[in-house]
Structures are given as structure tokens and as C-alpha cells.
Predict the 3D structure of the following.
Amino acid sequence: MRVFITDCEGPISKNDNAFELSSHYIPGGDRFFAVVSRYDDVLADIVRRPGYKAGDTLKLILPFLKAYGATDEGMKNFSSENILLVPGAKNTLRYVSSIMPSFIVSTSYEHYIRALCEAISFPFSNTYCTRLSIDRYDINDSEATRLRELASEIRDMPVVEIPEDAESIDDLKVEHQAVIKRLDEIFWREISKMRIGGIFRDVNPVGGYEKAKAVRDISSKLNVKLSEVIYVGDSITDVESFRLVRKGGGLTISFNGNAYAVREAEVAVLSSHTVTISILADVFNRGGKERVLELVEDWSIEKIRSLCGSRLADALYKVSKRHPVKVELITPKNMKRLMHESSSFRKNVRGEAVGALG
């Protein structure tokens, strides 16, 4: 038995729900979120702060959402009303689920994943996501006022730039090092000591090593080796899962991924339609990783037809008339090129603001 596991935002939907919630509740929330998200990238990939993982942005923004009036009902309603699927996603999940066990492993809040599952008729029981009940947490007027002041300060900070070859915080611009230092003070010296700061200890976003933990859990429950797993992701939160599945001999696919995803995956897909995922999953289910790699090296309608029949080949042919499709093996020689091409394509598909996030 083989197993399909995918991230949600990116391969399935165009949303970045946390970004959108910030923009909805917090004045200047799009800029605020961009600053905090890049701080997350630095802590996870450059500083490697102990106990911190990619995707913990989703707990860092919670005190601010609370200060601006976010509730569980409000987050659920907003999520339900703003789902934006990648073309073909519903059909892809329906098809792939019909041929092998399929799971969504997402850093997104539970409110969004429940809403998405309802929209596409996918079983919520086959998902892993960030559990949260924001209504459980109280906030007093003085903390709310201070958090609104801090939100304004963060919004006015520059978004930190991370050089491609950065290995330590010393490789950042001096002014950006100062931003990181100030954000350290805000989150770990001030907010963490507030009453609402308890939310940092309680909420555990499913990103980084928590996503990898979810993959291991699925493998264990189904008694399936990692070599029988195909994993689709697109961002820094998928890096640990990519590494785990690759090490276990499974297949890793970057779907419109950013540089972090392309750096760790084996196959890069650039497509505004999910039919490519359907094809790769079908071939993986039939013949495993080696058969997929064989297809990717000779990506053509004829090869697809020979491996998985006319239905998917014809679907790709129709889609390719309206949606550009590129599928390529990632090698040391082409990695930098694909990192740039995929990151650029990602912004076209998901929008400049969301596409630029880690």
C-alpha cells in the first residue's frame, strides 16, 4: 500500500489563512504579517532557536489577533467565506483518495482546515493541523492596548532580507539584525510575560518537525514504510517532512514551492492546475518512486498515456492549453534556477504578497 500526503495552502488552496486573518483583523495586517513571517524564517532557518520551528508564526500572531477582537466564530466564518482553491484541487483529492489513503498535513489553524474539508468533502479525520480555541484566552484592556501599540511598531519595521547564502544572523544587514533583536525583545521578553502570553506555551503549530511527526504518525498507523509515501509541499514548513520522506526512500514534490521547498524536494512542479499532482500520484501508486522519476525525465503526453492511461493524459492536454505546466527533476546543477523560477511562478499563482512568504 502506498500513501499520499500533501500540505494544504499551496498545493490545494491559494490561501494563506493566517496572513488573511491578520489583514482582516489588524490595521496594516498584511505588512505586519510579512515582518513576523520573515522573522519566523530567520529563527527557524538561520538562528535555529531551540524549541522554535518553521510555522510558529501562527502562534506569534495570536495575541495580536486577540487584541483586535478575533474569536473562534469570527475566524471560522472568515475562513469559510474566503476559501480559494487551486484549479482542479477538489477533483485531484477525490481521485487520489480513491486509489490510495490520502492525508492533509497543514500548519493552518483548525478553523480553516475544517472549513476547507467541508468545501471539498474531504474527511477532517484525515488531516493534521494547528489546534486552537482562541476564546479560551482572556486579555485585559491594558494588554490589548499595549499589543495594539506593538502591532503598529512591527508594521513599520522593514521586512528582513535573507541572502541566499546566509548561515548566521551576522550575514544579515546591520539594520536587519537590529530588527531581529527588537522582535526578540517584543515576543520573548514582553509578550511572553503577559497573561495572554500563555498562548505561546499552549498552541503548537503543525509546522517543521511537527509536520514530520505527523508523517511518521500516518506511516505508523497504516504500517507503511516511508518509501511508500509521496509528500507534496511548497514552503519552509515542509522542509522537515521533505527530509524525512527522502531519507526513508519516499518521493518528495515541490508544488509551486519557494526556495526552501525546492532546495529539499526531488521534483519541482510549476503549475496553476493540480492535474499534475493527480498524474504523479497515479504513477507513484502504480509503480513507486522510480516510475515517477522515469516519467519526469521524459515528461510528455505520450509517456503519461503509456503509464496511466488516456484519461489523465487527455486531462493534462486540455489543461496545458490554458495553464502552463512544468515538471522537472531537481539536481544540484539546476537547483538555483528552479528556486528562482518556482518562486516567481508561485507569486503569479498566489499573488505577490502571499507568494513572497516563507
Q: What stands out?
A: The mean pLDDT is 95. The chain has two domains: 3-14+84-131+207-355, 17-79+132-202. The domain at 3-14+84-131+207-355 is CATH 3.40.50.1000 (Rossmann fold). The chain has 18 helices and seven strands.
